[in-house]
Amino acid sequence: MPFDLLICDCDGVLVDSEVLACRIDAEELAERGFQNYPLQEILKRFAGVSQTDMIKAIEAESGRTIGDDFAASVTRRVQEALKNDLLPLPDAAQILAALPIRKCVASSSEPRKLDLALAVTGLTPYFRPHVYSAILVKQGKPAPDLFLYVARDMGVTPDRCCVIEDSAAGVAAGIAAGMSVIGFTGGAHCLEGHAERLLALGAHAIARRWREIPGLLSALETAPAARQATPAL
pTM for the complete prediction? Predict the structure, then answer.
């Protein structure tokens, strides 16, 4: 394979959970009197961003405190929804099983939600124990910290890593880390113009479905323009 490590985001790349989680964020915010953050606003601005960073941004903009129990309430509701409704993205398991490359997950989700999503959809065996949450670093996506942490922990230089990301924050993080980035638009939350947005942020290729991933990995290896300057590990 052309790369030494495939780094996958989880929500919106491996599992079709982004709309589900963002809907619960929007509902919980509305119940607390934050009416300016409907589902579309959450999807546009905070998909791929850690909940901690989302809360900080909303509190700064509104001048109000969301409440210390917000995260716990959302987590409880999301976990229940994941157990009942979550599905893997079509063909993800088959392609992951066939790709002869080391794999890991690097997600903005907190560990309990991440582990539950992978377990419910049967994807845990393709990654465990290499499942990383943004709680491991000071700055989550769009900062490159999580991806650089993953590369260092797995002993792979950034230029030998390829990231699959569905969010603007994730694509920006991958580019900043000096990695090749495939923008993924197969999730239900990806609206018209999403691919163009990811390309504008620097994504080197776009995949609409998992069956396109193997060909894109090979194509990126042969495209010199796909490489960015590699930061020091």
Answer: 0.78
